[in-house]
Amino acid sequence: MLARSPARSPGPIARSLHRFLLNRAAFAGLCMIALVIAAILSYPLWWSFKPNDIDLLAMNARPGSGHWFGTDGVGRDIFARVMDGGRISLLVALTSTVISALIGFLVGAVSALAGRFADAVTMRFVDLVMTLPPVIFLLVLASIAGTGIWPTVFVISLLSWPLLARMVRARLLELRERDFVMAARGMGAGLPHLLFRHGLPNSIDILVVFATLQIANAILLEAGLSFLGLGIAPPAASWGNMLNAARSTAVLEQYPWQWLFPGGFLVLAVLAINFIGDGLRDAFDPRAELN
Questions:
Q1: pTM of the entire structure?
Q2: Which residues in the chain belong to E strands, given as ranges?
Q3: In this model, does residue 188 exceed pLDDT 50?
Q4: Start and end of every ABC transmembrane type-1 domain (predicted)?
Q5: Residue 133: is its pLDDT beyond 70?
Q6: Within-domain flag for 273
Q7: Residue 36 lies in a domain
Q8: Which domain holds residue 104?
Q9: Where residue 205 sits, what CATH number does that domain have?
Q10: By the 8 A CB rule, do 116 and 176 touch?
Q11: Is there a contact between 175 and 199 (Cβ–Cβ < 8 Å)?
Q12: Which of 14, 101, 178, 244 gives 20 to 30 Å between its CA and that of 45?
């Protein structure tokens, strides 16, 4: 009889995924954000109102069967605007996170793998960027770039990458002393090969955790810019500019649904993504293998 081969043990990715699914808060966050995204993407198929449809006969209407979340001061449906605002807010957050993750990885990896001179110059530039006051820097960039989706993406992307660059550099400084990297250098491997063949696979856990937490941070940054009138400009909806439109004392006291629902979805999305980010961080933590 042939000897039965021993069962293969799960790989590190499978073990990390298993630890993530066992994290109740992370799994709950994943379910919450999945429901929010499903509603945002599918609402035009089953909801009869559009975000900018005006009904002068239903101005400041309370939530009810016709308008689930009520209407605003010009009769626009709050539910449609919350869904459309979520689409814009998540688009800004995802796009800016991808760009900042790409910039942070490239800067950190080049700093670690391109030599001491490149490391010194790159890190002094990163130090300079990190010393700038983030709030003032954000407001200055936003005032220069203007309002709209892509200027907001540009502003958030430029503000978010330095921390990732430092984390990637710290990981790859240790990696570049490994035998397989030194052997690749000895065989004439260039910087692009080192970056994407060795640097990227060994930084994927850092990138995943950073991207997840940065999405939540980007949603808050976009909301803050839009609230100040420097992000998404009306009549386009975003959670931030909906809160800005409802900041008057009369609206806060008499029509609370105009700020309660966009604010509630903003808090729900950020909370769910933070749960997911914490779960991914714990799942990818090497010390979790010992527990």
A1: 0.82
A2: none
A3: yes
A4: 86-277
A5: yes
A6: yes
A7: yes
A8: 25-41+75-282
A9: 1.10.3720.10
A10: no
A11: yes
A12: 244
